[in-house]
Amino acid sequence: MQFVLILHNLVRWAVLFFGLWTLLNGITGYFGKRNYTVNDNRSNLFFMISCDIQLLLGLILYFVNGWSAKLKDLGSNMKDPYVRFFTMEHLVMMLLAWILVHIGRASVKKAATDAGKHKKMLLFFGIAIVLILASIPWPFREAIARPLFRVN
Ligand code: HEM
């Protein structure tokens, strides 16, 4: 499972890179009133794919590393901030972000005008990125700290 954890750690940077690229395109597109281009489409497609890979890796870790088993004794486990984070908070917030990314991409595709597409990009992907940034176990978050890069 260590290999999956290393991958999950690494793919986080791809998620953030494509997410911020998408958001930047949304901002410059909406406020700069530009056309919706192949570059806009590519950025949010890659963002969605990286989130899909991250979800898959996360689910493997969740079930194989025993986090899901902790749901049984919820009362006492929820008192421990470390266990609560990986059993509930990280899962729920990241799933929410993943859903927003998928609904976001579908509604960007559906929007009739280029301004509408950029507006949807800003809204859905913007909220998703905020949720993702807030739910990463950054090294400065004492109780749940994990490394920026993992080698073993
Ligand atoms: C964009 C989405 C996500 C990002 C950016 C993300 C990021 C991370 C990071 C950086 C870690 C720490 C890795 C390490 O210790 O080196 C982690 C751990 C973990 N993540 Fe995620 N994650 C995401 C989605 C998910 C999802 C959807 C799930 C569950 C279904 C999940 C389950 C886990 C679990 C269980 C751990 C702890 C693994 C362990 O130590 O056993 N993650 N995540």
Strand residues, percent? under 5%
Number of helices: 5
Number of E-state strands = 0
The average pLDDT score comes to 97
Hetero groups: protoporphyrin IX containing FE
- Output the helix-strand order: HHHHH
Helix content: over 70%
Number of domains: 1
Q: Quote the distance from N terminus to C terminus.
A: 11 Å
Q: How would you describe the shape?
A: elongated
Instruction: State the low-pLDDT regions, or none.
Output: none
Rg, please?
A: 17 Å
Helix-strand makeup class: mainly alpha
Main sheet summary: none
Which descriptors would you attach to this protein?
single chain; 152 residues; mainly alpha; 5 helices; binds protoporphyrin IX containing FE
Give an account of the 3D structure:
- This protein has 152 residues and is mainly alpha-helical.
- It has one domain.
- The protein contains five helices and no strands.
- It is elongated and about 50 Å long.
- The N and C termini lie close together (11 Å).
- The relative contact order is 0.17.
- Residues 5, 8-9, 12, 15, 51, 54-55, 58-59, 61-62, 65, 67, 86, 90-91, 94-95, 97, 132, 136-137, 146-147, 150 line the site of protoporphyrin IX containing FE.
List the helices and strands and how they pair.
Elements: H1 2-31, H2 38-64, H3 74-77, H4 81-110, H5 114-135
The structure holds protoporphyrin IX containing FE.
